[in-house]
Backbone:
C-alpha cells in the first residue's frame, strides 16, 4: 500500500473518529475507551457525572459500578466480546459526588483490517432522574394499592351500605353489603342509576334531587328513609351523602353511607310503648309509685304521691321528698333507703309523710332495684300503700295491751308476795304438801310475770320509751353470770357454755343479758329434754359474736327472716303445744339494732337451730 494513500486513509479515519467523538461527547454525559477485552479502561471523560481517568486503569469495575450490578456488567461484556456486537446496558454507578446514580451505557467495537477488535468506544447517559421518577411512580402505585386494599377491607367488612354516585346519578362504587342487598354483581350494578338497580321511582327521584343539591351547595345531606325489603320486611335506613371535591374545589362525585336502623327503631318503639304502659298503670292506681336513678336521686312520683302531698312532682324529685317525712322518721328511713340502694337489695319500711292537709300519713314502702336491659343497675322503683288506719288500730291495740299489762302487774305482784309468804309459813309448819303446791303456784306466777313484762316492754318500745344505758363491760364476765343463772334454773337440758376470752363492749349490760337469756329459753322451749344446748361468745371479724345452738325442731328456711317480727310465730303442728306470743325475738332484735349490731338465725328442720347476734367492740 503506497505510503501516501495509507496516510490519507489514516487521516480520514482519525477525522471520522474525531467527528464521531465530537458527536458522542455532545450527546452523552460520559465517553470512554476500553481495551479489546474490557480489562483496562484507557480513557474516561466523565463530564461531571463520573470521575475522569487520566491514566489507564484496570479496576474501573470496582471504582464505578455498583457491587450488585457488577455481575450483570460482566455478563453483558462477555456477550458483546463474543458476538462482536454493541454493548448496551442500564446499570447503577457510583457518581463523582459519591452518590449512587443510574446510567445507560453503550459501547461499539472498533475493528482492524483483520476484523479483530482493537478497542471499544463507549458513551453513557445519566438516567438517574428518569429512574428516580420511575421509582417514585412505583412507590406511589404501591401506596395507592395499599390504600385501596385497606379501604376495600373496611367497606367490605361493614354491614353499612357504602357507595359513590357519579354526577350523572350512576353508581361508580358500591360495597359488598350493598351489592348483596341488591342481589347484583359489580358488573351488573356499577354504571347504573338507582332505578336500574331496583329503586322505586320516588326513592330514586329523591336521591337524585339530593345529588343535585349537594353539587349546588357542596353540603352533605343526612336523612332517614323507610321502605319494604323483599326478604326482611319493612326496614328503616339512616343515610348520609357527602360531596367529593376535586382539586379545584368542585363536586366531582357524591359518596354515601347508609345504615340499617330498623332494629334500633323497633327497640325504641318497644321501649316507648312499655314506658307509656308503665306511666298509665302508675298514674291510674292509688298505690304510691316512685322511681330513682342509679345515683339514688328520685326521678318520678306518680299522681298518688302528688295528690297526697299536694306538691308538684318537681318538689319531690331528687331528695325533695325527704323534707315531707316526719322528723322522727327522716334520718332513719334515709339510712334504710341508702343502705338498700348501695347493696342493690330490696327494702321494706314504713314512715310518716305530711299530706296536703298538714297531717301525717303512714306509708308502707317496698322498694326494688331495677336494671337496664344490659343488666346494669338503673336505680330503684318503689310502691307504697297507706297504712295509717292499720297503724291506728295497732296503736289502740298496743295501748290496750299496755294498759291491761299495767293493770295486771299490781295484783300479780301482790299475789306473788302472798304466795311467797304462805310458802314460807307452810314450810315452817312442815306442811310439805301445801308448800309444794305454793311452790308450783309461785312458778306459774313467775311465768305470768315474765309474759306481762314482755308485753310491757313491747309497748314501751313502740312508744319509744325503751332506753339503752350503755356501759363498758367485759362479755366474758357477763357470760359467766348468764351461765350461773341458766344452770340454776334449768333442769331438763344439757347446757354447755364455751370458754370466753375477754371481749370489751359498750352496751346495755342488762338488756344484752336479756337477749342471751331469751336465746337460751327458746332453745330450751323448742328442743327435747336432755338434748344439748351450746352457748358461745367469741371475737369474729372484730365483733363480739354470741350464739346458741340447739338440737331442737328447727325452723323452715322461709320463716327464718320473719322470726324477728313482732308477734311472729311459726305455724307448725309441733308448735301448737308450746306457748308463746312471738315477742321475745322481736325485743331481742330491737335491742341489738339499737346497739348497731346484727341478729340472725340459721337452722335445719329436724336438726336444730343456731341464733346469733353481734356487738361492736371497744378497746
Ligand atoms: P315465742 O317463743 O314466744 O313464740 P319468740 O319471739 O321468742 O316468741 O320466737 C318467735 C318464734 O320463733 C317462735 O314462735 C318459734 O316459732 C321460733 N323459734 C324461736 N327460737 C326457736 C328455736 N330455738 N328453735 C325453733 N324455733 C324457734
Residues:
Amino acid at each position: 500500500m503506497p505510503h501516501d494513500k495509507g496516510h490519507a486513509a489514516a487521516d480520514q479515519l482519525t477525522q471520522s473518529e474525531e467527528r464521531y467523538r465530537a458527536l458522542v461527547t455532545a450527546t452523552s454525559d460520559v465517553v470512554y475507551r476500553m481495551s479489546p477485552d474490557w480489562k483496562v479502561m484507557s480513557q474516561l471523560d466523565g463530564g461531571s457525572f463520573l470521575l475522569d481517568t487520566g491514566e489507564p486503569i484496570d479496576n474501573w469495575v470496582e471504582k464505578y459500578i455498583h457491587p450488585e450490578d457488577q455481575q450483570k456488567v460482566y455478563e453483558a461484556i462477555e456477550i458483546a466480546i463474543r458476538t462482536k456486537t454493541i454493548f448496551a446496558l442500564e446499570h447503577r454507578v457510583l457518581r463523582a459526588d459519591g452518590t449512587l446514580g443510574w446510567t445507560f451505557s453503550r459501547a461499539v467495537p472498533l475493528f482492524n483490517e483483520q476484523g479483530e477488535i482493537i478497542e471499544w468506544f463507549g458513551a453513557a447517559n445519566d438516567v438517574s432522574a428518569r429512574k428516580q421518577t420511575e421509582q417514585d411512580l412505583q412507590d406511589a402505585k404501591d401506596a395507592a394499592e395499599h390504600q385501596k386494599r385497606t379501604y376495600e377491607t373496611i367497606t367490605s367488612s361493614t354491614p353499612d351500605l357504602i357507595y359513590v354516585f357519579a354526577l350523572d346519578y350512576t353508581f361508580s362504587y358500591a360495597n359488598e353489603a350493598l351489592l348483596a342487598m341488591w342481589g347484583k354483581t359489580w358488573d351488573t350494578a356499577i354504571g347504573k342509576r338507582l332505578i336500574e338497580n331496583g329503586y322505586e321511582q320516588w326513592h330514586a327521584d329523591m336521591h337524585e334531587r339530593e345529588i343535585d343539591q349537594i353539587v349546588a351547595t357542596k353540603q352533605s345531606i343526612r336523612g332517614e328513609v323507610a321502605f319494604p325489603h323483599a326478604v326482611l320486611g319493612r326496614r328503616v335506613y339512616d343515610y348520609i351523602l357527602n360531596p367529593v371535591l376535586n382539586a379545584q374545589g368542585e363536586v366531582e362525585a357524591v359518596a354515601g353511607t347508609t345504615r340499617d336502623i330498623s332494629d334500633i327503631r323497633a327497640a325504641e318503639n318497644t321501649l316507648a310503648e312499655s314506658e307509656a304502659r308503665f306511666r298509665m298503670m302508675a298514674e291510674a292506681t292509688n298505690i304510691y309509685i316512685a322511681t330513682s336513678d342509679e345515683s339514688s336521686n328520685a326521678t318520678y312520683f306518680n299522681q298518688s304521691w302528688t295528690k297526697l302531698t299536694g306538691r308538684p312532682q318537681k318538689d319531690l324529685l331528687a331528695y325533695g321528698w325527704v323534707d315531707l317525712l316526719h322528723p322522727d322518721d327522716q334520718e332513719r328511713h334515709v339510712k334504710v333507703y341508702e343502705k338498700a340502694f348501695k347493696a342493690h337489695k330490696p327494702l321494706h319500711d314504713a314512715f310518716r309523710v305530711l299530706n296536703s292537709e298538714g297531717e301525717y300519713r303512714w306509708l308502707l314502702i317496698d322498694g326494688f332495684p331495677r336494671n337496664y336491659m344490659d343488666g346494669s343497675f338503673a336505680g330503684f322503683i318503689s310502691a307504697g300503700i297507706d297504712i295509717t288506719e292499720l297503724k291506728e288500730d295497732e296503736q289502740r291495740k298496743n295501748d290496750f295491751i299496755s294498759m291491761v299489762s299495767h293493770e295486771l302487774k299490781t295484783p300479780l305482784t301482790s299475789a306473788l308476795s302472798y304466795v311467797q309468804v304462805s310458802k314460807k309459813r307452810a314450810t315452817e309448819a312442815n306442811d310439805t304438801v301445801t308448800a309444794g303446791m305454793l311452790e308450783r303456784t309461785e312458778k306459774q306466777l313467775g311465768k305470768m310475770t315474765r309474759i306481762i313484762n314482755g308485753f310491757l316492754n313491747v309497748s314501751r318500745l313502740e312508744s319509744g320509751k325503751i332506753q339503752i344505758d350503755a356501759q363498758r363491760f367485759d362479755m366474758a364476765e357477763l357470760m359467766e353470770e348468764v351461765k350461773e343463772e341458766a344452770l340454776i334454773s334449768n333442769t331438763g337440758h344439757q347446757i354447755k357454755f364455751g370458754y370466753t376470752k375477754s371481749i370489751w363492749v359498750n352496751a346495755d349490760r342488762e338488756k344484752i343479758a336479756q337477749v342471751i337469756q331469751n336465746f337460751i329459753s327458746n332453745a330450751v322451749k323448742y328442743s327435747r329434754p336432755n338434748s344439748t344446748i351450746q352457748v358461745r361468745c367469741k371475737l369474729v371479724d372484730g365483733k363480739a359474736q354470741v350464739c346458741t345452738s340447739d338440737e331442737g325442731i328447727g325452723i323452715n328456711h322461709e320463716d327464718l327472716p320473719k322470726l324477728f317480727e313482732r308477734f311472729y310465730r311459726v305455724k307448725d303442728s309441733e308448735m301448737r303445744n308450746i306457748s308463746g306470743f312471738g315477742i321475745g325475738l322481736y325485743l331481742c332484735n330491737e335491742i341489738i339494732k339499737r346497739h348497731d349490731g346484727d341478729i340472725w338465725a340459721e337452722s335445719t328442720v329436724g336438726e336444730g337451730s343456731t341464733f346469733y347476734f353481734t356487738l361492736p367492740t371497744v378497746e
Remarks:
- The first helix runs from residue 3 to 27.
- Residues 522-523, 526, 550, 552-553, 555, 563, 568-570, 575, 580-586, 609 surround adenosine-5'-diphosphate (CB under 6 Å).
